[in-house]
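User: Hi! I'm working on a homework problem where we have to compare a predicted structure to a textbook description. Could you give me the structure for the chain below?
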Amino acid sequence: MKYDWLPFPLPQVFKVVDPKDFGLSTAGPLELSRGPDLKLQISLCADGRCALNTGVPGTEWGTTPINVLTKSGQPGILDGFRRSQCSTVTEDDRTQTRIVGLAESLSITLDRREALAIVEWLTNIPHLLWTRSTERTNTVVTARCREGSVAEDRMSDKSLSCDHIEFQLELPTLSKIRIGTAPLGCVTEGVPIEQPGFVEYYAGPLGLPDEHLRHTVRRAFEFLFGAGLGVLGYSEVDQACTPLRVCMRSPYTAGGFGGSQRPALLHESYRDGLDEKLVSRLVQRYVEGESEYDLNRAIWLYLHAKNAPLEMAAGYVGAAFEVLRRGYYEHSENEPRSRLFPAPQWAAIAQKLGDAITASEHFQDCKDFTDKLTHLRNRLPGLNAVSGSRLNELFLSDLGLKFGAIEKVALAARNDAAHANEFAPDEGFEKLQAYRAAHTLFARCLLAILGGQVRYFDYSSRDYPDRDLSEAQGSP
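Assistant: Happy to help. Predicted structure tokens:
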């Protein structure tokens, strides 16, 4: 695939189709740009006053998209516009209004032909040892001025750079993926983009992947790369890499920028390497298991722990751990292990207990006593559940993961955060260690669920050594 960034360099000017969408009778050009936080910014000036009572700044103006046109007349749709400022100035009997705000996205239709692939442009792609290279042509133009005439000399050279990986997937709407870094020189966002990159999705037998599937694939890479990925936009392209439809977005990067913490070795020989077969297998398994385990929500929690307050970080990871545990024991073959007694045996025991509660109703003839007995009877179904602390140990054992002192610290840290237990200021380093232990434990569990035969990075130990997945954290 040819490396062309979004075909509309920012800032960019558009025409508003209906000025009434902004509460105006007429409207000047609408300028779209990116702010320092990479969100899409909107600026619009017009004669006259704004007729809309927009209420509190920052609220959405309307539920319907706003139609715009490019300079060449292609139709576009502005979604999620929110006003941040609306000012009116009157000078020399002329009133002008300036509207400034943010938008979630701007999509543009260039051609209605069927697309072959979707290219998403990303930020926060980590520096890794990519296995595949891209050939680029660099052209240098020099101008010579002599006797009033200007002559140009062009010199071109080709270069190769290892900047991506590529692998096949067996999904109805996704046959192949390419992901990697993009050269800073090709970025046309008008503001600095940290660690730009891309991911390409190629159509499967049933067409192109929808937004949910692309989101799931990105979540898989966020886990494997140990960093959130912000989507700056995407292009739907044909076989010749010509953009057919384009969408620019305000990115959201879970866990913030930088600080990549990969969960495991993804190459048997290089710490920062990528084995395409291994990555392909893990991504395929992640996509297949997402709905069963609610993996996207678990990864959201796992990533947000990275920039959460220290006293709450382990709580985020602990919640992600519970998402995995719940998904595991909701499987029919695993569910019996989360119960103290088999269903037939417990039915008989529960019947006896229920009869005993019913026989106790004559002890006191008052509504309060009867209500308490009813409450006790309603709690009977939960009495057969294995306790949370015991289920944690059982979960690790069922996944084939050894359980030691560091794992106990990790689970205790989750409990402290969930119950807002206080800790002294001088315990900050211990809390950081406990969070790292919880971070590592979650990654081990998910890697085991994905069936990854990998060596994990132990962030609860000094220098972050890699260990066999079954090996306990903090081992000598």
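For your comparison, note the following. The two ends are 47 Å apart (CA to CA). The longest strand covers residues 149-171. Good luck with the assignment!
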